[in-house]
Amino acid sequence: MSSRTLARPARAAPDLTDRAYWAGTVKMSLSKLFILRVLHDRPMHGYDIARRVEQTTRGCCSPSEGTIYPVLREFEEGGYVTSAVEVVGGRERKVYTLTDRGQLALRTAVDAWIEITDALVDADRVVARTRDGRAADCCA
User: Fold this and answer.
1) pLDDT tens column, 43-84
2) What is the dihedral sign for C-alpha 78, 81, 84, 86?
């Protein structure tokens, strides 16, 4: 057995000047909050949750099936939601309902995001702006 370790291919560092990088990071984090938020209104199945999150966020967060179901599974395992199978139009659908623990998680998430939003507003005040509202090159 060789004592050499295999070198991993270098992963390119993210481009922190790319707005899409930051938008993706924010959307990924906010998706969980908004899944809890829409379930606060009423129980619903995964497809409805995804569409309602998209509507609630005016398109900012659009969770796909590949992202929403692992989150719902995580929420169910944590006791934040429960699920029940219902037959709709001859098809089985899992309907998710927010629990009391899920309500508490939503309140906690909203409080945390409000706190960070205040810090972001403060950060925005220190960034010079151009006439069109974009950040000026403040570090040149």
Assistant:
1) 999 999 999 999 998 887 888 888 899 999 999 999 999 999
2) negative
Domain boundaries, the chain: 24-126
11, 35, 48, 54, 136 from 51: Cα distances, Å: 34, 10, 5, 5, 36
Give the number of other CB atoms < 10 A from CB of residue 102: 22
What is the Cα–Cα distance from 113 to 30, expressed in whole angstroms?
9
In single-letter form, the type of residue at position 73 comes to R
Q: Is the pLDDT of residue 139 over 50?
A: no
Instruction: Determine contact, residues 61/35, Cβ cutoff 8 Å.
Output: no
Instruction: Output the CA–CA distances (angstroms, integers) from residue 133 to 124, 129, 130, in the order listed.
Output: 11, 6, 5
Reading phi first (left if > 0) and then psi (alpha if -120 to 50, else beta), residue 53 is in: alpha
Secondary structure element (H or E) that encloses residue 78, with its range? none
Statement: the pTM of the whole predicted model exceeds 0.85: no
Identify the CATH class of 24-126: mainly alpha
Q: Residue 66 corresponds to which amino acid?
A: G
